[in-house]
Amino acid sequence: MNALQIKNARPNCLSLLALLSALSCLTPVLAAQANPHLFDFASIPIYGYEIVQTYQHDPSAFTQGLVYDGGVFWEGTGEYGQSTLRRVSLENGSVLRRIKLANSLFGEGVAVWKDHIIQLTWQSGVGLVYGKENLTEIGRFFYQTEGWGITSDGNRLIMSDGTDTLHFLDPETFRELGQIKVTCNGSPVVGLNELEYINGEIYANLWPTNWIAIISPETGEVLGAANLTGILPKADARGVDVLNGIAYDYEGDRLFVTGKLWPKLFLIKLVQVDKNKNDR
Questions:
Q1: Alpha carbon of residue 113 to chain centroid
Q2: Strand, coil or helix: 235
Q3: Is residue 26 part of a domain?
Q4: Exposed e or buried b for every residue in 83-121, given b needs 16+ CB within 10 A?
Q5: Residues near 198 by Cβ (< 8 Å), separated by ≥ 6?
Q6: 2: in domain
Q7: Which among 216, 102, 195, 94 has a CA at the least distance from the CA of 152?
Q8: What is the per-residue DSSP string for 161-192?
Q9: Residue pair 38/184 in contact by the 8 Å Cβ criterion
Q10: CA end-to-end span of the chain, whole Å?
Q11: Does residue 228 contact residue 49 with C-beta atoms inside 8 Å?
Q12: How far is CA 209 from the centre of its chain?
């Protein structure tokens, strides 16, 4: 974007309007909190969950991104001065390898693309690219929004910024290819956070709720929603933050979820519920 130049010492009303319009383009897009009651009367399937298995998870991990690949998790964690990228064991939650981000960076979502791991940062406008084998940083890319969640549909990267917009990026050049607005019955769905692409649909944590939205990548329309309220036992819920972290094992057809500072990670199955029972 070119720098603005004010040539007149006494700008008229039209030039002031033009200036304000241009400045508005420089203002970062602000994230908004999702409405937890958005799906109460929506004509979409609503899912609950069954816990298939429970695993240990590092309770100090402020989980911002999670992906399953090659038999392990790749996990991005946040907080300034504490952000990391990790390779994590499924069986016992142990950290097999970890690298620390610069103190000025707040780590966010992660995705796998071929032999690379891609990690977003929150408000720095910079994405990090690592070699999967040794977790060495091999490149960076830049974006104009905040960075929240990221996933891949096998051809493109899909990125969230905390609003109702999803951005599609070229995984080689990181050029933006397009975007969609996410809606439910015509209303915007904001707070899109950690993402996972599963069988042709985008799953998105809705910050700061216990909901996961299931989104059409073609239209942005919400096709269904899962409520994971209560999945973390009360005994484990002290001092934790929100649900955040979705990972899918394509070979095993397994869905994993966790949250920020959660001591547990769960293998779950989604189960459609009767919305007329008022048990949500």
A1: 16
A2: helix
A3: no
A4: bbbbbbebeebeeeeebebeeebbbbbbbbbeebbbbbb
A5: 248, 255
A6: no
A7: 195
A8: -SSSEEEEE-TTT--EEEEEE-EETTEE---E
A9: yes
A10: 47
A11: yes
A12: 13
Q: How far apart are CA 222 and CA 158, in angstroms?
A: 16
User: In this predicted model, what pLDDT tens digit does every residue of 58-78 receive, in sequence order?
Assistant: 999 999 999 999 999 999 999
Q: Are 51 and 182 in contact (CB under 8 A)?
A: no
Rounded to whole angstroms, how far apart are CA atoms 264 and 237? 10
Let me know if residue 270 belongs to a domain.
yes
Instruction: State the CB neighbour count (10 A cutoff) for residue 66.
Output: 30
CB 32 within 8 A of CB 209: no
Neighbour-count burial of 125, counting CB atoms closer than 10 A to its CB (0-12 exposed, 13-18 middle, 19+ buried)? middle
Structural domain contains residue 20:
no
Helix (H) or strand (E) holding 257, with range, is strand 254-259
Task: Report d(CA 247, CA 256) in Å as an integer.
Answer: 5
Q: Looking at 57-94, which runs of residues are DSSP E strands?
A: 63-69, 72-77, 84-89
pTM: 0.88
Residue 267 has pLDDT above 70, yes or no: yes
User: How many structural domains is the chain composed of?
Assistant: 1
In degrees rounded to 5, what are phi and psi of residue 26?
-85, -10
> Is the CB of residue 46 less than 8 Å from the CB of residue 273?
yes
> Residue 70: which CATH number?
2.120.10.30
Q: Which two tokens stand for residue 105?
A: 């960076």
What is the sign, positive or negative, of the torsion defined by CA atoms of 80, 146, 137, 73? positive
Element (H, E) at 18: helix 13-26
For residue 45, is pLDDT > 90? Answer: yes
Which range marks the domain in which residue 124 is found?
A: 31-274
The token pair at 228 is 């994971």
